[in-house]
Design brief:
The chain is α/β, with parallel strands linked by helices and 490 residues long. The chain has 14 helices and 15 strands.
């Protein structure tokens, strides 16, 4: 369990609960402790930007709860079996499809992309989960939960597969607000004749001949459906009626709806608060493989500092759409550099700071800290949080430009940056401020290089201009000539 700050748990945190469709006061089951479950990755390919938004959003929520004095047990699953193409009950397992493509064993694929995911999240300064269970490691727990559902009359076996009987649970649809009779039948999958109702979903699937990932069960050889793993693992590690269940908005239906139905129908109190992050767009369009704007985290990190990427992600509210574009990155780079440079300058001046009071800056720092924390309490409103940090930066820079600042005020400002911007927002990872200093030098040098190349072109010295461009290209820097003038990118 991740340890909290030394303060007493804050009772005035409000979050938006998807189930209740409003902001509500957060009250944990156990005073001072929070059990939190996040739907993790399906490890069959590299993480994309949508994963980054979800992971960073809930990482900030976790960090904020710790900042407010709560001990947090943070559980994130790893889906390494049972997630079929198109999220349906038919088709091929995504891991098997990738294994066939890469000529690897399924668990080789799972390990390869799990560790790739871990590296990406480490780069983005996402804290590791308290517990990171895999679906394949919890087959007995999933089978036991399915047996409970069959015993209670909420699931049935058909030809070696087991399905949840949605008609047996009238509350199915309460999270998404979808009434069962209004749900279209067979719109995302070919309806299987063995189902009693087309909307029933698979808890256990019969393994056809040639299906590599397979386990013995009371219903024959097979593998678990996608939804059952999260119920089994969240209940195992967080217990009945745990506090927060999180995930992307796209998982609200059917995945989270199915989790609630199968858990509660089996007699288990499930998550008390539901939180969902919104989607990510690129150039104004939702990221999608079919639209050709699918971008991996690794591609983004190859072009941008990880802390700039994280800054862009936390600059929008977790329930709002986040836009990834050149202009958004440029704004994020500028904004993050401003904060990092202010922190760096405060730390640079501290050793020689006079040992005297500076009440004006100290009072302003305390005021901005209150603004920051008030924004966090209001459904983790990170845009307002960022605004408070910029307000602090404006006052810090004004004080530094006016003359020597007292040690106490500088220490308070440093602590505010490190605690609020670092510990809570996760922005100042080790070496990040130094990277921003380096980035500033690089930007200045590149401006000179581009001006020199432009002068060569104006003077028709094309060979020299091309030589500059080719030299940059050899070290991984691309120069693009646009209507607004030349620009460069790594």
């Amino acid at each position: 369990m991740t340890q909290p700050s030394a303060r007493q748990p804050d009772p005035d945190i409000f979050l938006y609960d998807t189930m209740q469709r409003q902001k509500v006061r957060f009250t944990p089951t156990t005073p001072g402790r929070v059990g939190m479950y996040l739907c993790g990755p399906t490890v069959y390919s590299d993480a994309h930007l949508g994963h980054a938004k979800k992971e960073v959003a809930f990482d900030v929520i976790r960090r904020a709860l710790m900042h407010f004095g709560y001990a947090v047990r943070y559980v994130t699953n790893v889906t390494d079996v049972g997630h079929l193409q198109n999220d349906s009950d038919d088709g091929e397992d995504k891991l098997l499809a990738r294994a066939r493509l890469e000529r690897l064993e399924p668990m080789e694929v799972a390990d390869k992309y799990f560790w790739s995911f871990v590296r990406d999240m480490d780069a983005l300064n996402v804290l590791k989960p308290s517990i990171n269970p895999r679906a394949t490691g919890h087959i007995p727990e999933q089978i036991a939960l399915i047996e409970e559902l069959i015993e209670r009359g909420h699931a049935y076996e058909a030809n070696g597969s087991v399905y949840f009987d949605v008609r047996s649970w009238p509350e199915y649809g309460k999270l998404s607000g979808r009434k069962l009779d209004d749900q279209e039948e067979g719109t995302r999958e070919e309806v299987r004749e063995e189902k009693r109702d087309p909307r029933d979903f698979a808890l256990w699937k019969r393994a056809e001949s040639g299906h590599i990932m397979r386990w013995e069960s009371p219903w024959g050889v097979g593998f678990p459906g996608w939804h059952i793993e999260c119920s089994a693992m969240s209940l195992k590690y967080l217990g009945e009626g745990f506090d927060i269940h999180g995930g992307g908005l796209d998982l609200q239906f059917p995945h989270h709806e199915a989790e609630i139905a199968q858990s509660e129908a089996a007699g288990h109190a499930f998550a008390r608060y539901w939180m969902h992050n919104n989607m990510l767009t690129i150039g104004g369009e939702k990221m999608s493989k079919s639209k050709g704007n699918f971008t991996t985290v690794q591609d983004v990190l190859a072009a941008h500092d990880p802390m700039v990427v994280r800054f862009l992600l936390v600059s929008s509210h977790y329930r709002s759409v986040t836009e990834f574009s050149d202009a958004a990155f440029e704004s994020a780079r500028s904004g993050y550099r401003r904060l990092a440079e202010a922190l760096h300058e405060v730390e640079r001046r501290l050793p020689g700071a006079p040992d005297r009071a500076d009440p004006a800056l100290l009072a302003r720092t305390q005021a901005h800290t209150r603004e920051f924390e008030d924004a966090l309490r209001d459904d983790f409103n990170t845009p307002r949080v960022i605004a408070a940090l910029f307000g602090l930066t404006t006052d810090v820079n004004a004080a530094l430009n006016a003359g020597p600042v007292g040690r106490e005020a500088l220490e308070a400002a440093r602590d505010a940056y490190r605690t609020l911007g670092g510990d809570v927002l996760g922005l100042f990872a080790e070496g990040a401020a130094e990277r921003q200093d380096d980035a500033g030098v690089v930007d200045a040098l590149m401006d000179l290089v581009l001006k020199a190349r432009q002068n060569y072109r104006l003077n028709k010295q094309y060979a020299q201009a091309d030589e500059l461009r080719d030299t940059l290209s050899a070290v991984g820097v691309t120069v693009e000539d646009t209507k607004e003038g030349p620009r460069w990118r790594r």
